[in-house]
Give the backbone structure.
Amino acid sequence: MVTLVTVFHVIICLFLVIVILLQAGKGGGMGAAFGGGGGQTVFGGRGAATFMGKVTAVCAVLFMLTSMLLAYWASQHEDSRLKARAVVEAKSLKEKKKKEREKIEKMMNEAMKKAKQKKSATPAPPPATGGMAPEKAEPTKAEPKAEPKAEPKPRAEPTPKKAEPAPEPAPAP
């Protein structure tokens, strides 16, 4: 159906071009605007529409209808193709994310194993003492003794001043 409408559309396009080119000009162009048009008026009535004018109008309407119909079909066809492509891309994106997640989990597991190995690695056992318990070694550095901190002394609150009596006014002379 789309092919038939496309062929019809191309035929209408060619016929419309031919009809427009075969029409006679209506006026002298810019020369008519400046008084060179003779008996024709610039904005005058056209009179009855000619046969070629009617054919042009019909071809123009058919051209617009076929254009809209082809555009609608193309959008529907592209829409289904785009939806199918989106589904394929979504699946590939899911797979890619899954692979990345697995890679990260593998790296984390390896790091956890290495950390556990470091943690579980025990220091070398002390040399054998022949069945005797090893004596406690004295610290080589003398640890400074922590002196208790002295508590700060409370501030003495200022004593409120007593209000002094106001001076007596001098006697008037």
